[in-house]
Amino acid sequence: MNLYISIVLIAICSLSSSCTKWLDLKPQDGLVEQDFWQTKEHVRSAVNGIYISLVSSNLVSSLFMHGEMRTNMVELTAFTTQMHEEYRFANLMSTNTFTNWGDFYRIINYCNNVIDNAPGVKEVDPTLLQADLDAYIGEALTIRAWMYFYLARIWGDVPLKLNYTQSDDDNLMIAKSSQEEVLAAVVADLIRAEGMVKETFATTIAADKGKVTKYTVNALLADVYLWQDDYSKALDACEMIVKSGKFELVSGDPSTWLNVLFAVGNSSEGIFELQYDRQQLNPFHNLFIQNRIYAVGGTVYESLYMIDESDPDNFDVRGDRGSLDASTGQIYKYQGINRQQRKTLEESYTHWMVYRYADVLLMKAEALNGLNEGQEAIDLIYEVRERANALDLNDLTPTEDDQATITTFLVAERAREFAYEGKRWFDVLRHARRNNYARIDLITNMVMEYAPADRQQSMLGKYRDPNSHYLPIYFTELQMNKALVQNPFYNN
After folding, report:
1. Mean predicted lDDT score pLDDT of the chain
2. How far is 472 from 491, CA to CA, in rounded Å?
3. What does each C-alpha distance from 367 to 400, 407, 412 come to in angstroms?
4. Could you give the CA distance from residue 14 to residue 47 in angstroms, rounded to a whole number?
5. At the topology level of CATH, where does 9-197 sit?
6. Which residues sit opposite 342 in a β-bridge?
7. Contact at 8 Å (CB) between 14 and 51?
8. What angle do CA 262, 18, 275 make, to 5 degrees?
9. Is-above-0.85 flag for pTM?
10. What is the pLDDT of residue 15?
11. Would the pLDDT of 46 be above 50?
């Protein structure tokens, strides 16, 4: 398993600055030099290095791909490769590089480095305050948990490594842990982190939105608890954020919504956003404009957001020139400044939203629906819809005791609200798999919407097997780690 790194690169600048200078540490036995981990500045640099790794790697491109590729939200274009087509049309093999989990484990190892080595710094540098040390470790725990949460949802059962790989000679023959065991470890990390991280950094808005806070931890906890069908705990985590009074939905005014929430970012709605800037651009201009690997799914605008033919001024702010450009089929959310102006390549630094307040409200609705509190769930869905001026044409008008219709309504609303934020596949899978895949129709209906006619039956047959919902393990991992066994659907 490629858990190790030959040279550790750690950012020495703070998140609030635009500094992109790196500290290149001399390798000792292929890894960290012995004179590191001596001062509080070393700890701060190592933690900042974790954040930099989130935006400087291929991580966000991968998060988008894994969250949208197998959904009706996107279409492939002439710029896509055979690897994209294999993923989209359920023909994945272990030789497809999109099955490589290296970026996730690389970031996990950065986190393990901090978790294992930062505590010892206090012994040699007494100026490192315990509260600051706790916060640093809590941030690393949270990001490690976030990475493992993705691994468990993308690959299912995965190796669980909770200590730093210090040497190329470390024994990396690690078998897979079950998805349930991985999620339990994720929850344990987050519960520990919740008591360690800061509520606010009290320095800049960018720090509060771009670094892990107690609100980040609780948003992630709510998400994990929903995956575990633990609705009461998910509700508690959401309530912690809601009752804080620190977040609100930004205005749905069409002239400002896109600009405030996305083009500028760090709004009152943001909870955790990956902070791109002029020195570190996001990957979306390349993915959606320059090479245009992804385009808007053919049915998204008319069937998801819908059109009021009788009143052109009545539209969902998240639709045309919100999430998408209906005239070109381009994904617009990351390139728009407002409804009229687009960003240039040099301005392609719209943040990647990890969690925002609308997500918390809809996760709370999901938890309430699971607890048979249907009316409260419906009210929260309508709160998000009203902000966006969602059209009555797609209002399913569920009743409070109709849990199935509330679920269908909620899944569709999440598609509208979080279009192209890398959440669609995970939302559909989470709801579909409950109660022994009682709602497998959420997956099969979506597949029918985008699968070519000559591939539909083959794809439906595959997606009816729950094992197909997880990716194969990349072939080089199997070659290097003899303790690994290929995932069930791909054994042959």
Report:
1. 93
2. 9
3. 14, 11, 16
4. 9
5. 1.25.40
6. 336
7. no
8. 30
9. yes
10. 35
11. yes
